[in-house]
Amino acid sequence: MLNEIYDDTKETMQKSITSLKRDYSTLRTGSVTTTIVDHIKVDYYGTPTALNQVGNVIASDATTISITPWEKTMLQPIEKAIQNANIGVNPNNDGDFIKLFFPPMTADQRKEIVKSAKSMTDNAKIALRGIRKNANDDIKALEKDKDISEDDAKRAFDEIQKITDKSVAECDSIFASKEKDILKV
Q1: Taking the chain (185 residues) in consecutive chunks of 10 residues, what is each chunk's mean pLDDT?
Q2: Where among 101, 125, 145 does a domain terminate?
Q3: pLDDT at position 153, please?
Q4: Which residues are bridge partners to 101 per DSSP?
Q5: What is the CATH number of the domain that holds 65?
């Protein structure tokens, strides 16, 4: 019973950490990556469709993303979707493809992005504490039903705390790495 709770807690916490990494991928670092536009949905004949599903998205250099639609008629909807996404640049449409030119980031922009990353990290830690609370509630229920002894419950609470501490440390480590990446000029 307790091993199931431990395994479930580890798995759920790992999902939160994976979600944090996915959130980080939307942040801009020193060089531009195509993940900045991953969340953009384009109106593809009435259906919201991921940008990379309607065209070829590549980072042609450290400051430029080039989008080549598979259908010429998609240029306008792609351009509109990028403008609505408010990613900090205006699309340049030359009739064949769209280019996004990202200016080099200023120190203030870097600090703002670090603040966003810190906020994402804090949200992940809040999620981890919620997962810990759920696991502790499960242990309390087992103890109340006399399925485990008081000593077993205490050991289980300690084990859940160790799992939580390890996950929080992983979040902090990921944040430190991301912060270093963002602040690198």
Answers
A1: 93 96 81 83 91 91 90 91 86 91 86 93 96 95 92 95 97 94 80
A2: 101
A3: 93
A4: 64
A5: 3.30.1360.40
**What residue numbers bound the domain in which 21 lies?**
2-26+106-183
The CB-based long-range contact list for 167-171 (8 Å cut-off, 24+ gap) reads: 167/13, 167/14, 167/16, 167/17, 167/128, 168/125, 168/128, 170/17, 171/17, 171/20, 171/121, 171/124, 171/125, 171/128
Q: Which residue has the tokens 């340049």?
A: 92
Please indicate, yes or no, whether the overall pTM of this predicted structure exceeds 0.90: no
CA dihedral 156, 159, 163, 169 (to 10 degrees): 140
pLDDT the model gives residue 181:
85
Instruction: Name, in order, each residue with C-beta under 8 angstroms of 184's C-beta and a sequence gap of 6 or more.
Output: 29, 30
